[in-house]
Amino acid sequence: MSEKGSVLVVGGGISGITTALEAAEAGRKVVLVEKEPYLGGRVARMNKYFPKLCPPTCGLEINFKRLRQNPDIKVYTLSQVENISGEKGNYKVTIKVNPRYVDDRSATTQCVEECPSEIDNELNYNMDKIKAVRLPLDMAYPMKLVADRDALEKIKDSDEYNKFASECEKKGIKINLDDVPKTIEENVGSIVWATGWQPYDATKLDNLGFGKYKDVITNVIMERLASQNGPTNGQITRPSDGKKVETVAFVQCAGSRDENYLPYCSGICCLASLKQATYIRDQYPDAKIYIFYIDLRSHGRFEEFYNRVQKDENIILIKGKIAKVTEDPQTKDLIVEGENTDTGEKVGTKVDMVVLATGIVPSTKDEPAPIDATYDEFGFMLEDPAKSGIHPAGCVKKPMDVGSSLSDATAAALKALIDTVK
Amino acid sequence: MEKIGVYIDTGYGIGEALDIDALKDVAVKEYKVPLCKTRDYWCDEDAVGEIKSDIEKEGLDGLVIAGTSPRVHRDIFSFEGIYVERVNLREQVIWCHPAGDEDTQMLAEDNLRMGIARAKKSSFKPLFPETLDEDIDKTILVVGGGITGITAAQGAADAGYKVVLVEKEKELGGWAAKMYKYYPVTSPYTELEGPDIESKIEAVKNNDRIKIYTGSRIFKLQGAPGLFDAYIMPDGDWENKPSYLVYEAKKAALASAEGKEDKKEEEKPPETEAPKEEEIPADAFKERVGAAVLATGWRPDDPNKLEFLGGGKFKDVITNIQMEEMAKNGAIKRPSDGKEVNSVVFLQSLRENEENPLIYCSSVCDMVTLKQARYLREKNPDAKAYILYKNLRAPGQFELFYKKTQEDENIFFSKGNVYGVEEEGGGLVVKVKDSLLGEDIKIKTDMVVLGMGMVPVTLDSSVLNLDYRQNAAVPTNKFGYPDSHFVCFPYETQRTGIYSAGCIRQAMDHASCIEDGLGATLKAIQCVELTSQGKAVSPRAGDTTYPEFFMQRCTQCKRCTEECPFGAINEDEKANPLPNQTRCRRCGICLGACPERIISFGDYSIEVIGSMIKAINVPDEFEEKPRILLFICENDAYPALDMTGFHRMQYNAWIRVIPMRCLGSMHLVWIADALANGFDGMFLMGCEKGDDYQCHFVKGSELAGIRMEKIKETLDRLMLESERIRVETVSIADYNKIPEMLDEFAEKIEELGPNPYKV
Amino acid sequence: MKQENYIEPDSKFIKNIINRGGGTLKKCFQCATCSVMCKLSPDYKPFPRKEMIWSQWGLKDRLIQDPDVWLCHQCNDCSVNCPRGAAPGDVLDAVRRSIIEYFSLPKFLGKMVGEPKFLPVILTIPVLLVLLLISLSSQNGHGFNIDLNGEILFRNFILYNCIDIAAVILTLFIVICYGTGLFRFWKELNKNPLPPGATGVGIVSGVIKTVVELLTHNKFKECEANSLRYWAHLFIWYGFLLLFVATTIVFLGIQLTHLKHDLNLMPPWGIISPIKIFGNLGAIALLVGLILVIYNRLTNEENAGKATYFDWSFIILLLVVTITGILTEIIRMASLALLAYIMYTLHLVFVFALLLYMPYSKFAHFLYRFLALVHAKVSGRSI
Fold first, then answer.
1. What pTM was estimated for this model as a whole?
2. Nearest to C32 among A257, A261, A338 (CB)
């Protein structure tokens, strides 16, 4: 039981981590709940931040450092808030904590390489396989292994498994498939909801060929492709044949600003594509990149980044939405069709790879908070003075870039402070 | 530390890979430590218990725990009041070097030596607040009474803190109060909202925790977090006061940045000084505050720059600000003849010349235009509104407001490049190139509204008039934003305890300003709280060490006062450094800067690091085992090196690693020590520098680079190959590049042959 | 360097489009999805994106000169895929209507046909016309010698000469009114600058190509969102064609008989006579087509596009013409004399209505589109 007047932060992405740290360093006790086995959420899956093109791990590392040395923050991973009762200043929260099924002191991956069972790597959008016992991320916090129970159950009677298990035992890693979820109760005074966002399901986009053609990917997948710890160790290649890419098309507003899919603008996709264009240019000095957009929305100081990218004559920005992606049955090249509305000419550009700039869907759309809160028609949670004990932070509120999420999460920390003034 | 216990972990395969007894001998025989234990997994509960009881029984005051990287199990290995030194035998030894190998063993032993040496030399007595003669004040100063400042003040008060709110105008409210309507910020995002600031202003006025000075400005802000004294000047003819400084140079810099394709080295704003004690007028109020929120907001850019669009040239070409005023005061009429307005052309994303890129977007202009078009149509039902945009920017849910606005039959949208506005037949003509209509067009109109950019007032004025040695103004980037690292450390300025919020930080809408006001306030509160406990604020949050100055040996060279990225150190009239304890961020850059070596931290000093260098066992030249010293930034490069090991990438085992608080704290004497001790090469690894710097202390790696350039010159003079020293910047994600860097350097060193100073 | 033009939105024109089914036009934000989804849209200056912004800005003259408006067959692939909920298909339809109205002569007729409130007036005119014919027939000597028990002979009820004279007058009227409209339209079309490098065809082959296109309906085939439309339009079109041919032949037959009494080409023809079969096939085709249209319109509003009074009035008129026609024939064969004569009268009324309002009703689109298509081919816009 945490003491009254402490703060519950739900969601261990960059927003949640920030709120937790800022509130704790301002003198509050904090309970941080994350459903994944690691903290970092979406940014942990990214290669670089715009506009500085710096690695997210840099910011995460320093936050983890702050976490490690701060006794006032209790972190529950693999956990979900199941029930909340009470009112501002005094909430009872029940949290389901799922086991890691492996008790590990050593945070080493050495023996894990021997694991006989493999599962889809959800972190890489199932582009590759991963061991059933694994460290979720290179720089994971907590630095602890996690096991996929279902996968191991299947093989638990086999010799190779037992051999593996005992090997691990020697290395200080105890696999325990009989472990069971615990339910924990916490008493908090304020709640910050920072469960973030999900990428929009691109298979719903009828005419853009995702799921139909292998070389049509989404922007979140591109982040993994470009990442050192991604499925290709950072090499951006065609998923279909692993070949280098010479021409890539970015399709902006893939689903966003579209009544049939997401009526709102996802705010960050334009900049994400500009950024990803630089990934490709860094790897392929001759690659040509086309970015098709309706409006290039590089707000604020990001305009400078937009200008910088525009100067590269191998990056061609075309005003006009891509309405159709088809495949040339012979060459397997992809053809993106749109109208260049500046020149009033149709374009049917042949490219090796298509990146769909898919949008942001608030996690609260499918998983609303188990407490009375206010949402807009798209499922974004709104700051509602009438429901003063719970505060949204980051992308559950509206689409935001990382910097904005941080400042928003910091603001949420003050709201939590105010709720819990002794 | 007096009494040190050494705990060697044999788990994780360390036991198999290394000769543990030999390691033990290092501790026991060489260093005569009173206690040295080995076992598997000291992180286990019972093991930790054992350590605890040792501490009590043996009265240990320092621990050296040899095993995992200090980045692992930090929480487990922390004991109240005990100094803990971690020796990295896993990530940086057995994971990246062959097991059982002689060189690997040597490396492990050296690491242990360094650890023990450091622990022996280190001390860490929290210096303040005990050492402070005054109490830390937790009052929050909020400068600027617009929507941001008001929210900040209210937030701080609600959180239980006293607030001093200073606004230069007679009334609170700022721009938000001057607005006729707001565009919607909440569901369903389609209808205009009325300004709601009045109630907020009332709430602030009636809050007895908040002390308000209107019609006033900060004449001078002196002191440090927890101990600031703000001199507040009511009214008065400000422009003539020396403290209200206009940075012509800075403006010029911005202008030139606007003009050029590549922005040239922009001139530094002139060094400005806060008014002297004697200049402070008698009628100035003095307030003691703990931290400040800087929320003085923005001013519209100058329309006269837009001469080709008729800005400041034609009466009927007005700014969106004038439009807002007009609407608030009633009817929208033509300035020239007061006639009813039947058509208005709105222009966005304006630059002084169509060819130039926009240097930054003011984020809200397009939305403001949509709003103004909407109320124009409400007020003048027959009027037509033309909206000529470059990229219509209605991010997030604002898209729905755009959509709704489109439905109006008499609002006409097109992308287009407006290249001229002229007077013609008693009206105006707007000339547009490359419109979506597929042709170049001219539009006759009664009035043109320019969506002016928002300029942070810090571009013109030093605002706080800081009594800081480096400058009276908070350092700003080329746009005039008082920045530190806007993605990862929002709100932070390069002045500890001063946090920027709202449009002074970057252009934003009023809803974001409200959040911003709260966020910056949180940081301010955090600052006074941590400061009151003698702790550093981020990025070294919680650090209780503090640099001591051995003033007897100071030569008043001013390096420390000049190089501190946070302007922490002032000078007295004799140019002696006047440390301001609570301004310090503990990066150690001053330490690295001081040629007299008089600045030191309890666990981080010339002596401590020197002792580590000396602890390393350097074989003599006949053994053909060169030694390379790797000074590495502990924030990014060190974790990256851990990752190299994590991925089992191998690299040269001649390398010995010494982590730095920041590469900026690198002192030249350590290079000298190393050379004297027979090291053959020195490698410095820090964070990216330049515009997109990743240094957590702004310019640490940059300064290190400069210093190394200096020493290379000296080396050349000493007929010593300067290639023996290398400085590289890496990002935390570059772990895969590190082995190549190091091996390549090691080869180079081998080519150069042994350091002639080897004994 | 393109020359700059003063732009002055025509608010009335915008209203006009909106009131005629183009209500969604302002929703467009120029992403150009429509231009890509449209199978008929050429690569250079594709439609309907530019037509959408022209309509938004009320640029009447641009649209009047624009053949693309008529290249659209309103299959609504654009509307279905529009991210903004705008329906370019409907907007272009409304634009076409406004253009027909714009060229209509006399103007008031164009206006009246377009608006429900004038329906009574619109109907009375043909009624009066037929009554006049009947009375004319009865006045002269052998009028009204109809025998309700004997063979049913419509020519005894209303003299063919009367009908033919009326038909001739009507035709003249149509030729003049419709003709002038079309002529002005053609002139506007030719104000269009030819697309650069476009290789058009000669006027003759342009016409031929267009006819072939009409006969094969191949452009319609391309439609995805609304394929039923292809069949519907095909049936109506051929049904109408057959009937038109049949009628002409009959007309000629009658005239010849008047000239040379010895060859008797007077109706009624036997049911198995080629002409009859011809006509009946046409009637059936027409009926099927119409049923399809109505079904499609009613069940599939989203893809079929928004049906307006303008559409319905024409569809229904065509339907009653067909039905009354078929009934007349059946009843006559059933030799229910009185009923037959009444039905015949009705039939005539609607036929006259159909012809009379040809230049103003949806019917008019037939030749406007024909010209536009010819122009498109001649200018090389779309071959």
1. 0.93
2. A338
